[in-house]
Amino acid sequence: MSVDSSKKETFEYKAEMNQLLNLIVHSLYTHPEIFLRELISNASDASNKVRYLQITDDTILDRNKDLTIKIEVDEKAQHFSIEDTGIGMSREDLINNIGKIASSGTLKFLEQAKEEKEKLGDLIGQFGVGFYSAFMVTDEIVIETRHAGKEGVGLRWTSAVGGNYTIEEIEREQRGTKISFRLKDEFKEFSTELRIKSTIKKYSNFADFPIYVGKEKVNTIAPLWTQKAKDLKAEELNEFYKFIANDWEDPLDYLALSLEGVGATFKALLFIPKNAPFELMRTQEHKTLQLYSNRVMIMEDCKDLLPEYLQFMRGVVDTEDLPLNVSREMVQSSPVMQKIKTTITNKVLAWIDKMATKDTEKYAEFYRTFGKLFKYGVNSDFSNKEKIVELLRYETSRKDEGVLSSFKDYVARMKEDQKEIYYLSGESRGQVESNPNMEYFKKHETEVLYLIDPVDAFIIPSIPEYDKKPVKAIDKGDLDLKSDEKEGEKEKNQLSNALIDLFKETLKDRAQEVRVSKRLVDSAVTLVAGADGADKHTEQLMKMMGQDVPQSKRILEVNADHPVVRNLSKRYIANDKDPMISKCILGLFESAQLIDDELVSKNAYVKRMMEIMEEATQ
Ligand code: ADP
Questions:
Q1: Which residue has the least CA distance to atom 21 on ligand 1?
Q2: What percent of the chain has pLDDT over 90?
Q3: Between 3.10.20.600, 3.30.450.20, 3.30.1360.120, 3.40.50.11260, what CATH number should domain 392-474 receive?
Q4: Which architecture, in CATH terms, is 5-217?
Q5: Nearest residue to 375 (alpha-carbon basis) of 392, 359, 361
Q6: Torsions phi, psi of 585, nearest 5?
Q7: Confidence (pTM)
Q8: Which residues line ligand 1 (CB under 6 A)?
Q9: pLDDT at 277 (0 to 100)
């Protein structure tokens, strides 16, 4: 093949790419060795891709070539290279996958890195800045590659830190990729075999392909998931997780499965990460489980193995029941997949449940990190809804900030005569605690669940009752509350029906109803939702999400014991035409709206208050 070397092209990096390179070059690293893990991980991915093609496509280059990863070092020249026989890269691959920041995760990384420079080493691991981490240890990188496809040609990509990269055609017979560079002086240790070998033992022992350093094979390649669960060591599992998930931190927990006779035969190693990747909520980019068929990876990110609410999990599933040479679409729609998914879902829920009972701290950590996603299972997985409801946790009025309780805990603490489960949703604990609707519950020491994660408001309508007890928002009108009269207070000030009627008349366009409150202690008035209206917080959330919710009229509850209300009563008895009374009624109503963020006109409210103050100061 003849190569036209005059066709060397130069490309400029985009601004954000330069930013990334700058960060990598100018920061201090706690773990420079992760560049090696990243490069091996890329070589291993590329090998996995070609292994699948070797079985399914007879036109690929070097179809029968062994899959190996070779690392060569030269101490004198401070030189390092890594070569794989994987899928290789085309010109487009080089431009789109290497030359650009493809994932929004990496952009997030940039933002975060600007704030936390000292943690960059960890961040690189977390976000898999991948290939570019090599710029920690070198100033210039050369990639030589050839794609395994029919159109593949030899290509050389070169880039020094700063500005641009070049691509040119070269003579290259075999498929795969070789990456080489000279190490900076301060990192010349990585040009010794000893250092490379020990690093591989630590980070990349589980690449499923032999890794050679010089002539010696340095990794154990028996896939971990084929081993018996009892033989698995925590240390190994942690490293395996980090290797497949590109994570820097150990996982929070793991589960090893080996199943037969459930309609599918498969082995799996599943992990819950410690951190939620930024991409998590955008499930397109977030990777979940790798699917293997008889030890050959057929999909590197198989979302069909888990319901959406469990897609924070990482790991490997290997089954004997899927033929290799079927299309991915067929894999996805195969009944075996459905069986595996159902089985994994059940096992994972049982595992999480065990964690919740045996290790509450770990569970709380899990819940903080992945709860937002996990909770949606209540709405989306009908067959497991009850199990997931048991796993929900809330702060409550009975416990300190940060302490989480389940419905079960709540019910166990319920007083004998309490028939309902109470909750209040809001933005924060502080906001919920100071809500006037809490007054009755504080006074009676009746526990209230605080739903302060925005997701909670979307989940709770799916839980109308728990343990046969209705689950109710305390800012709704239909609660089973005890009336609050104590002995000797019987003849205390009661609101006359006539005054209530005046309230109703004055507010007839604005309130659905006016009634004497059982739940207020210190506040004069509060607004609650009717039995079939949404609670306020939910309504606000729906609006925030652009949903068209009709603003339902509220019920005004009046505290007959409040001095202002008592004074109104007296004035009313003295003169039922007193104009001050209806002014105060409107003022009270609007202040309740103000507290709930529902006040329509601040100006009208202030004007009314001025009139009332004017009279009071005469
Ligand atoms: P990531 O591996 O997280 O996708 P990288 O920056 O490490 O990010 O790599 C970017 C992309 O470049 C990879 O997704 C892959 O498409 C390509 N790539 C990197 N190294 C290789 C390699 N050795 N062989 C083939 N493709 C590679």
A1: 42
A2: 54
A3: 3.40.50.11260
A4: 2-Layer Sandwich (3.30)
A5: 392
A6: -60, -45
A7: 0.72
A8: 38, 42-43, 46, 84, 86-89, 93, 97-98, 128, 130-132, 177
A9: 63
